[in-house]
Amino acid sequence: SMAGGLGLFLFGMHTMSEAIEKAAGARLRSILEFFTTNRFTGMLVGVIFTAIIQSSSACTVMVVSFVNSGLMNLYQAAGVIFGANIGTTVTSQLVSFNLSEYAPVFLLIGALCVMFVKNQKVVKIAEVILGFGILFTGLSSMSSAMSGLRDVPAVVDMLKSLESPLLAILVGTVLTGIIQSSSVTVSIVLLMCSQGLLELPICLFIILGCNIGACASALLASLAGKKDAKRAAMIHFLFNVIGTVIVYIIFRVGMAQIINLLHIVSGNNPGRCVANAHTMVKIFQVVILLPFSSGIVKLTYLLIPGEDKTVNYRENYQLKYIGDK
Q: Under a CB-based contact definition with an 8 Å cutoff, are residues 217 and 178 in contact?
């Protein structure tokens, strides 16, 4: 049941993001290119773009491809990548509001429109609604499965043994790296916290790990790219690692005060606490690191030195001609 729910959740997210790209993909790309003239507008574009397509990984991979093709420089890319980190928290916020009870209605409306409506514009919007319905149906299935896990002593003992903050960060990093989506991992953690399977402090450390694991997609996408594409992926990685270290120190020093603040803001709802913590951590990281974005870009030049080799075809031809002679 848990596996099936996760499958539906992943498929729903994939369907929704693909449908949004089909409906407005070209327009979103042109907006991304046009509004990244400075790091502040670039950051806003990153927030909005990621909130719409529900994936910071997709946004950062697209930014890496833009840098690789020369449409965007590294300083513009930094702003969009920073914004994407805030935009990715929208999914966990939606999950925390427990929209699962309306999922069947979204599913029915979406399916009927896709099957019987001839207007392609309406069909594209219906596919987004259908993806939304599938996503929350999956969440409902996962939530039901997790409520049963509370009665399994082995599972409860295993999760309660997760007391080390560093181990929790590692778990978040590995899970997100495998699933390729921090939104999915945070949503699962949110549900587990709501069911009483995970303590809130450990959830906060897992979220920090999710931030690092979310870099996997961009790093993989940059492997075959030019030096600047690798540097763009490295900006994302450095932002998350430096931000995680800063927040980790704050958590270790003032965890009790942070938990109290989250309970006040979230009305003692564990799921809302996790979602709000995710959003607050991301906003804090951006506020702290945005003034140093130029320094982070310069650091990528130190970590990935050199320039791409350009082939001089004329010179190669002349050398070959002389060699043949």
A: no
Nearest one of 245, 201, 236 to 218, comparing CA atoms: 236
More confident residue, 325 or 51: 51
User: Which residue in 209, 183, 203 sits closest to 271, CA to CA?
Assistant: 203
> Residue 302: what are its φ and ψ, rounded to 5°?
-75, -40
Structural tokens at position 296: 């982070």
Residue 159 is predicted with a pLDDT of 67
Tens digit of pLDDT for each residue in 113-152?
A: 989 988 888 888 888 888 888 877 887 787 777 666 666 7
d(CA 253, CA 248): 9
Residue 174: is its pLDDT beyond 90?
no
* Each residue's pLDDT tens digit, 251-285: 999 888 999 988 888 888 888 898 899 999 999 99
The span from the first CA to the last CA of the chain, in angstroms, equals 73
Task: Mean pLDDT check: name the lowest of 76-80, 165-169, 222-226, 307-311.
Answer: 307-311
d(CA 306, CA 51): 35
pLDDT one-digit tens code per residue, 93-108: 777 776 667 788 888 9
DSSP state of 316: H
What DSSP element (H or E) covers 235? helix 227-266
Q: Are 231 and 293 in contact (CB under 8 A)?
A: no
Question: How far apart (Å, rounded) are the C-alpha atoms in residues 215 and 57?
Answer: 7
DSSP 310: P
Q: How many whole angstroms separate alpha carbon 287 and alpha carbon 40?
A: 11
Tokens of 195: 């069911």
Judged by phi (left if over 0) then psi (alpha if -120 to 50, else beta), residue 268 lies in: left
Report residue 113 CA to chain centroid gap. Answer: 30
Residue 31 near residue 47 (C-beta atoms within 8 A): no
Instruction: Give the Cα separation of 40 and 57 in Å (integer).
Output: 20
